[in-house]
Amino acid sequence: MLKNYAMKLSEQEIQMVERLRKRQRSFRRWRVLLLIVFGLNCIVTSIVWIVLSTMLSRFANDDNDNAGNATRMLATLIVQTYAFPICLLSLIGSSWGFCQTLLNWHGEPKTTLLLKLIEESQKHDT
């Protein structure tokens, strides 16, 4: 049924296909670097959060001065309250990027299929 149908692409569609091909080639070149960057960001963010929490808990539990203990606890709570969402968003973004890179290791499947169909159609036209 599709063999009898000749697909003609306009100039704009041809440019769009070329951009898709370029994006696929570009992703294949950069995928290892993306995986390393996203993975390192996850690791560094986790380490920063652990170190920050440990240092702040030691600061809050310092028993040298009982009068300033409540102030230190409040300061610790405020710092952790503002730091936690930043670390969480960084972890979520890096995890998402890491998973997307792994899932689309050979390129986005829909785009790959579309480019193959267009290529086969162009071969049959000539």
Task: Give a quick account of the main beta sheet: strands, pairing sense, barrel closure.
Answer: none
User: Total number of helical segments?
Assistant: 3
Q: What is the helix/strand order? A: HHH
The end-to-end span amounts to 18 Å
Low-confidence residue ranges: none
Question: Helical percent range?
Answer: over 70%
- Kindly name the structural category: mainly alpha
Radius of gyration of CA atoms, rounded to a whole number:
26 Å
Count of individual beta strands: 0
Indicate the proportion of strand residues: under 5%
Outline, from the CA principal axes?
A: rod-shaped
Mean pLDDT reading: 84
Can you characterise this structure?
This protein is mostly helical. 81% of the residues lie in helices and 0% in strands. It has a domain at 37-112. The mean pLDDT is 84.
Q: How are the SSEs placed, and which strands pair?
A:
Layout: H1 11-60, H2 69-103, H3 109-125
Helix pairs in contact: 1-2, 1-3
Could you list some keywords that capture this structure?
126 residues, 0% strand, rod-shaped, 3 helices, mainly alpha
Give me a quick take on this structure.
This protein has 126 residues and is an all-alpha fold. It is built from three helices and no strands. It has a domain at 37-112.
